Each structure stands twice: as C-alpha cells, then as structure tokens.
Give the backbone structure.
Amino acid sequence: MDTHFKPNNYFDLSEFTHRDLFDGVEHVWEIVPKISEYIQMMFDSGKLKPNYKNSTNIFIGENTFIEEGAFIKGPAIIGKNCYIGHVAYLRENCLFGDNVHIGHASEIKNSVFLNKSKSAHLNYVADSIVGNNVNIAGGAMFANFRLDKKHVTVRKNDSIHNTNLFKFGSAVGDNSSIGAGVVINPGTMLGINTVVYPLVSVRGVHKNGEVVK
C-alpha cells in the first residue's frame, strides 16, 4: 500500500481541534465524505451547541468576526479568531480551525481548513483539505469535478489511485502558497511548503517544497 498519501505527510494535526476526523484515514481524500458525518456527530453528541443566529447546525468560535453580507448555510463549525469577509458564501459542511481567514466573495463547500489558513478573495474551494498556514491568493479556484464525470483519480508517477469520489478537489500541505488566478484540477496533491506561481493550471502529485510554475 502506498503510504505517501497519509494525512501526517501533509498536515501537522497536533494543534487542530478536530484532529479526530483524521483517525484511521489511510488516504487524505477519504476525509472528504467524512466531513458531514463528523460535523453532525459533534452536534448530536452535545460536544458543540449551535450558536449562530437561530441555526440548528452552525457553531462559531469565540472572537470570530463575520462581516455583513456573508452567508453561512451550514452545517458548519468555525473555530476561534476567524474572519469571514463580506459576501463570502460558506455552503454545506465547512469545518475550520482557529485563525482562518475567508475573504470577500469566496465560496467554500465541504472542505476543511486547518489553523491559520487564508482564502484571500474571489476564491472557490470545494471538497478539499487545506493545511495549516496556507495562503490562497485572489482568484484561485479548486476544481472538484471531472468534465468526463468519472471518479476523480490521483496520479503519482505511473500509479493511478481511484478515489471512488465524483467530487474531490485537492489536499494542500502545510505552509503552502497558491498564487493569484491559479486553477487546481481535481485530484491534485500539494506537499508541505509547495509554491504555485500565479495563473498556473496545476494537477498531479507534488512533493514537499516544490515550486510549480
């Protein structure tokens, strides 16, 4: 079995409040279908109580600021000291750690953001896992669905791994930087400290510290 795709090769989970989500996961993309179940479990078990307006499935951590015009559909768990910008759209199953920044007019869906990561503005991130201290510059898009409507695959050298998912965007390792106007294609895996130059269409598996341009 290829152990390259284990979560601990991409993320430091030691300070992530919801690290239990990653228990027993062999391949990072296995997180994607678990997000909804995990969020619901947190509410059903009483570990978290909904506290946003009159919602039944949205939790907002202390000192998190939500600008006027932002819309949180839920279910969602948002950590402490986060910022949700003007007309940001958080669709179903957003799970954020602490000190996460979601900028103006960004759309996030069924995704995990670990601590201190930023979506600048005008971004689309869906069915993805974003590591700690990742910066996603303006206009970057995470595509999550193949045009041929087949299962998303992850290609590493000559090996093809079928995720068995129709929707999977990307896993972005800790401390990575995504340039403005980047398109990340379905099934892209970016290692720790990856840098993607602006206006690049990126796909495949990229090792730690790689510069993609």
Summary: The two ends are 31 Å apart (CA to CA). The chain has one domain: 3-212. The first helix runs from residue 35 to 44. The chain has a mean pLDDT of 97.
